[in-house]
Amino acid sequence: MPSLKQIVARETALFLAFTAGDLSAWTVPYTLFAVGSAPVSASASLSSSTGTAVSLIAAAALLLPALWTTLFLYAYTLFTQALSPDEDRLNKPHRPVPAGLVSPCGALARCLAVAVAHLALSTYSGVAHDALLAAGATVWAAMTTTMRWGGGHWLGKNTLALGATVVAMLSGASGVARSSCPCTVPTTPGSPYGHGYNVGRGRPGVGDNAVDVVTTRHVLGLGVYAALAVHMQDLRDQDGDAAAGRRTLPLVLGDGPARLVMALVLVPAAWAVATTTLSTLAMDLRVPSWPAAAVFVVVVVAALHGLLCWRLLARRTRAADHDTHMIGTYIFCLLTALSSLERLGVVTSMRPAENAVIHAMSLRGAMTTVLDLLFTKK
After folding, report:
1. Handedness of CA 130, 133, 135, 138 (dihedral sign)
2. Segment 14-52, tens digit of pLDDT
3. What is the structure's pLDDT at 31?
4. I want to staple 250 with a disulfide (CB 3.0 to 4.6 A). Which of 61, 199, 219, 258 is the partner?
């Protein structure tokens, strides 16, 4: 009979084995996006009880969405990997099921337990509808590949199912962040952070339609972005996908034509969607003195997408395709971070440098307050 310590150690090791490779694609970007929905104001005083409140709000806005997203990620990886052990033996033999660390039935049992915990947190936070949409889209994506519903076609699995999953996860993480901050944080008139607002569980307070419109635009835009860019991940898994009977874009079109479509159509289209979705990237050429910092952000984002296009055409080994996919996930993390900065008012198209400095000063004060609360002896 294993001891409690042994059980905890084993379950922790299994959790890391299932999720470690996907944290940058799931927990990191959705948590970064959620921070933009928390009512944190740069103009709030950080030298009083209000400063402590802001610090706690910032911590809750980061930790609860991270927990919510990670629970979903764990349930997702348990479910999908339990259904595809044969494919993983070809593509990813290091995964827990093909490596013999856990049986498919054991993975499904853990999936059920984690899914119940995720749904409970979702219900508490008022985002059960987002959790159910993400779960439904995930099940559909898994069934299109493992059970070959719809022939395992890239249109159903990647473009529709995974695109819907991203929309639900962005929306849900944003709602969890709002629900974790049941208070009002004031802002000063004319602040780039907009108006202070009351935050209730799962929904912003009355009168926050402008905030909701911007968040909704970002959720939908980034969902479309992900649906266009996600096909890059299939370049590295073509052997296993072919053995499983999948119809991914590289297998349907062929490796060479698929790379051309991704580099010349899909990635540029994704960049265009990001540029039109995020105001900080929509450079207005009619303004001759556009701030240098904003131009820098625009150029960096465009250059990173250009790098993806170049790698798709020039770097064609399996290892290189994996690196290209990882660069794509890092770019997605950057875009979700820019979304949060824009929704918080930290970075705008007209005053990026000044607002960034203001926020950095407030963030430093908030971090100092959190550290004081954690480590100062009473």
Report:
1. negative
2. 999 999 888 888 999 999 999 888 755 433 433 344 445
3. 92
4. 258
Rounded CA separation 328/284 (Å):
26
- DSSP 8-class letter at 347: S
- 186-199 burial: b if 16+ Cβ within 10 Å, else e: ebeeebbbbebbeb
Distance of CA 267 to CAs 171, 231, 283, Å? Answer: 23, 10, 19
**Axis-axis angle for helices 352-375, 318-344 (nearest 10):** 90
Task: Return mean pLDDT, the chain.
Answer: 77
Closest by alpha carbon to 60, among 222, 191, 201, 245?
201
Q: What is the distance between the alpha carbons of residues 138 and 134, in angstroms, rounded to a whole number?
A: 6
Report pTM: 0.79
CB 138 within 8 A of CB 76: yes
Highest-scoring range by mean pLDDT, 29-43, 73-87, 193-207: 73-87
Mind listing the pLDDT tens digit for each residue in 102-146? Answer: 999 999 999 999 999 999 999 988 888 888 888 888 777 766 655
Q: How far apart are CA 49 and CA 365, in angstroms?
A: 13
H or E segment and range at residue 181: none
DSSP letters for 233-284: GGGTTHHHHHHTT-B-HHHHH-HHHHHHHIIIIIHHHHHHHHHHH-GGG---
SS3 state of residue 316: coil
In this structure, which amino acid lies at residue 189? Answer: P
Q: What is the mean pLDDT of residues 360-369?
A: 48
Instruction: Read off the amino acid at residue 288.
Output: P
Question: Residue 125 and residue 201: Cα distance in Å, rounded?
Answer: 5
Q: Which amino acid is at 231?
A: H
Are 207 and 131 in contact, with CB atoms under 8 Å apart?
no
